[in-house]
Amino acid sequence: EVRLVESGGGLVHPGGSLRLSCAASGFTFSSYEMSWVRQAPGKGLEWISNITTNGIITHYAEPMKGRFTISRDNAKNSLYLHMNSLRAEDTASYFCARGGSYFQFWGQGTLVSVSS
Amino acid sequence: DIQMTQSPSTLSASVGDKVTLTCRASQSIRTWLAWYRQKPGKGPHLLIYKASSLESGVPSRFSGSGSGTEFTLTISSLQPDDFATYYCQQYNTYPWTFGQGTKVEI
User: Fold this and answer.
1) For chain A, is the Cβ count within 10 Å smaller at the N or the C terminus?
2) Which of B42, B44, B91 sits opposite A45 (nearest CB)?
3) Residues A81/A4, Cβ–Cβ less than 8 Å
């Protein structure tokens, strides 16, 4: 069974940093591109970033460029999202998803709240 | 960025109804479109990819059609599990973008 479990969310002050993790199981992690998608409370879905199987090529949505960094550790079956210079508008549930273009499986999400 | 517009925003229906949801792209995305269903507090679930390909394990009551800028998701006979919010997503041009969602309610 494919499982994606996000962790690392929490309350952070504006300007702060956070690292999200996604633990993958039930499939050959190193064979799949991966992505992060977020959803502000009561709002729609917003694509953040994706990464190729070897971690060399990444893409980002414009509001995240320069502030967020996606990475992966295939030996640990894990995906990461490093978030810096966080703003109130970054408050959302963050989902990791299998796939680089469309998203075949999703985790349950981890909530990030940016507030003073 | 490519804008995805879904209609209606909310749809009231009953179990057994046939419903059709629409998604329009601001420019051609060929057939690079996916549909998802999301229930409250959960991650989305892939239903359709490449506009009309049914994801493995998804019931056959779901079907997708369209190309270019106009797409539809049809549920042939609404089941209790289908009362949820549906999103379309284009993956033709970066950044990937989603529609604002259609909520299907009783």
Assistant:
1) N
2) B44
3) no
